[in-house]
Amino acid sequence: MFEKPTLTIIGFGAFGALAAASLAPHLRVIVHDPSPHARDAALAAGFDVLDDLARIEGEFILLAVPVPALEGCLTRLAPHLRPGQVVIDTCSIKEEPARLMRHLLPPGVDGLPTHPMFGPNSAARGLRGLRIVLCPQGVKWRRIAAFLRARLGLQVILTSPEDHDRQAAVGQGLVHLLAHAFDAVGAPAIRTSSFDLLTDAFAMVRSDPPEVFSAITRGNRHMADARERLVRAIADLSSVPLRP
């Protein structure tokens, strides 16, 4: 009988739960989370729960933790890893997680920076056709990329951590900034259908946890440039005189 590869997910928040449910048909999923509430939720969902990181198992370890928690998580995890394992992060920025994995993971353990460009809201109808970014490192990333394409139907984008953060500053960071800015301005009673469509789009990110918003808009060193370009573009357009 074919035995499924084992994946341990560290962090059973909104994204960790989504990852567990999506990957369970293909992998044996184990969950670790320091929160008793999260462990109870994982057990209720039918997953095995690992209480002690010293007993970490599986070829793949998925870190579904926010950027501020990543360094501490890697520090606690590293002494218990063994050669051949792959540690995969899911943070919204990539330069800092890539640096941390290079410095903190032991020899023989691959670190693979990834960014799933979706969450529970955008994946409500399934993962097929959604995007995930991989920043290739180590020796097993091709196998993982093939799995993501063939089994989950994801569009895999390959790039460097620096290029990811530069592009994500526009493709994700500005969206989060605009969502909160529109909230601050408020919705007028007189508005077009296009305004309502924008509001619906912003609703997809408005409920993201504060640590996600902070990582995307403050942890990405390219955000300052993207923000200034947006402000200049608005100012330039605003300065165009109206035709009589």
Tell me about this structure:
The protein is α/β, with parallel strands linked by helices and 244 residues long. It has 2 domains: 6-159, Rossmann fold (3-Layer(aba) Sandwich); 162-237, no CATH class. Helices cover 47% and strands 14% of the residues. The chain contains 9 helices and 8 strands. It has helices spanning 14-23, 36-44, 67-77, 95-104, 141-150, 161-185, 193-206, 210-218, 223-238, and strands spanning 6-10, 28-32, 48-49, 60-63, 86-89, 110-116, 131-134, 155-158. An 8-stranded mixed sheet has the order 3-2-1-4-5-6-7-8, sandwiched between helices. Strand 4, helix 3 and strand 5 (86-89) form a beta-alpha-beta unit. Helix 6 packs across helix 7 (193-206). It is globular, with a radius of gyration of 20 Å.
Which of globular, elongated, flat, extended, rod-shaped describes the shape?
globular
Structural class by helix and strand composition = alpha/beta
Q: Considering DSSP H and I runs of 4 or more, what fraction of the residues is helical?
A: 40-55%
Largest sheet: 8 strands, mixed
Supply the number of helical segments. 9
Please give the CATH class of the largest domain.
Alpha Beta
CATH superfamily grouping of the largest domain: NAD(P)-binding Rossmann-like Domain
Taking strands numbered 1, 2, ... along the chain, how are they ordered across the largest sheet?
3-2-1-4-5-6-7-8
Distance between the termini: 78 Å
Unreliable stretches (pLDDT < 50, length at least 5) are: none
Give the SSE map.
Blueprint: E1 6-10, H1 14-23, E2 28-32, H2 36-44, E3 48-49, E4 60-63, H3 67-77, E5 86-89, H4 95-104, E6 110-116, E7 131-134, H5 141-150, E8 155-158, H6 161-185, H7 193-206, H8 210-218, H9 223-238
Parallel strand pairs: 1-2, 1-4, 2-3, 4-5, 5-6, 7-8
Antiparallel strand pairs: 6-7
Helix pairs in contact: 3-4, 6-7, 6-9
